[in-house]
Amino acid sequence: MVQRVDPDIRREQIADAVIEEINAHGLRSVTLARIAARTGLAIGSIRHYFSDNLREVMRFTLGILIQRVVRRDVGLSDDPEARITDAIVFAAPTSEQERKENTALVEYRVMARTDPELAADIAAASLAGTGAIHALLRQALAGRTIDEEALRREALLLFTLIEGFSFNSALSSAPLREEEVRAAVSATMHRLRDAYPSSDQAVE
């Protein structure tokens, strides 16, 4: 009896092959034939899961890359300030697999400059990311004197820090070191906190 393969597992296996191909040869090198060679699947099998459409494979892989970044935010601290540090550290690529996924994601972002569909997917993910950072920062600075415009500006600065780690990693042959990322984020959070007095101090 032929064992049935979970379609979701098979699609993710194909996405992993796309990620490996991007890291080896660049995003524009990806073809169904190259994916088949990396997975050991027949091209017909890949077409079965993605309707004979390489673009569908590529957009699915982008979705997987975004999901994997989001899924890293597990085990966040209960302390609001430490929680935002954890979230940024988890988003940074600090393992070899995360470095590969990040490199692929950066290549997608470059291609999205002239591809409206990819641009829409990436813009939605960026909007969700900035929103999450904004919400975490609001909690971390609760009880401090900061207006909404300053809060928005500081959240944008922190999100830019995430993007800086991402592009730095994409240009490197090794993952970022988690302890260095955490130290940089912690220092940024300490400076940010000290820039805004507590509400009690403001009253005095």
UniProtKB/TrEMBL annotation:
Record-level Gene Ontology MF annotations: DNA binding
Keywords of the record: DNA-binding, Repressor, Transcription, Transcription regulation
HTH tetR-type domain mapped to chain residues: 16-51
Domain BetI-type transcriptional repressor C-terminal, residue spans: 80-192
Pfam families: TetR_C_6, TetR_N
Protein name: Transcriptional regulator, TetR family
Species per Swiss-Prot/TrEMBL record: Brevibacterium aurantiacum
